[in-house]
């Protein structure tokens, strides 16, 4: 049953990613920076950090929400495409900002929200 719940949560996460991406693309249509993917991945890192801090390591919610929802919500593949495109277009400055903001931002948000989850639960 946990596999079914995880699959449903993954579908819900994907739908959330789609809607957030669509909303931001409408407001940032002129932007030449992947703000929506950056925001989605940072939100995912914060959410997963909070979840891991709030529940025990063997809790089923880690699989259902962590693997399912956040796995469907965040997108390493799109991050990779955006990064490779910037590299191929020789947009090294923009690529550096994107890599730094995604990698360091995700690590920092995960750690901060993991701590918050531990403190609250």
From TrEMBL:
Binding-site residues, Na(+): 71, 74
HAMAP family (alphabetical): FluC
Organism: Bacillus xiamenensis
Protein name per its UniProtKB record: Fluoride-specific ion channel FluC
Location, primary (coarse class): membrane
Top-rank taxon: Bacteria
Keyword Disulfide bond: no
Homology family: Belongs to the fluoride channel Fluc/FEX (TC 1.A.43) family.
GO MF, one example: metal ion binding
Chain segments annotated as transmembrane: 6-24, 36-55, 61-83, 95-113
Pfam short name (any one): CRCB
GO cellular component: plasma membrane
Any one Gene Ontology BP term: cellular detoxification of fluoride
Membrane topology, from the record: Multi-pass membrane protein
Regulation of its function: Na(+) is not transported, but it plays an essential structural role and its presence is essential for fluoride channel function.
């Amino acid at each position: 049953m946990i596999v079914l719940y995880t699959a449903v949560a993954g579908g819900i996460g994907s739908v959330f990613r789609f809607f957030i991406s669509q909303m931001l693309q409408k407001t940032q249509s002129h932007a030449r920076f992947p703000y929506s993917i950056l925001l989605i991945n940072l939100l995912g890192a914060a959410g997963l950090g909070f979840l891991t801090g709030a529940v025990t390591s063997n809790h089923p919610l880690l699989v259902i929400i962590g693997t399912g929802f956040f796995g469907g919500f965040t997108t390493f593949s799109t991050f990779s495409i955006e990064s490779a495109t910037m590299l191929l277009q020789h947009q090294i400055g923009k690529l550096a900002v994107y890599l730094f903001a995604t990698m360091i931002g995700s690590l920092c948000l995960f750690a901060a929200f993991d701590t918050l989850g531990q403190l609250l639960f």
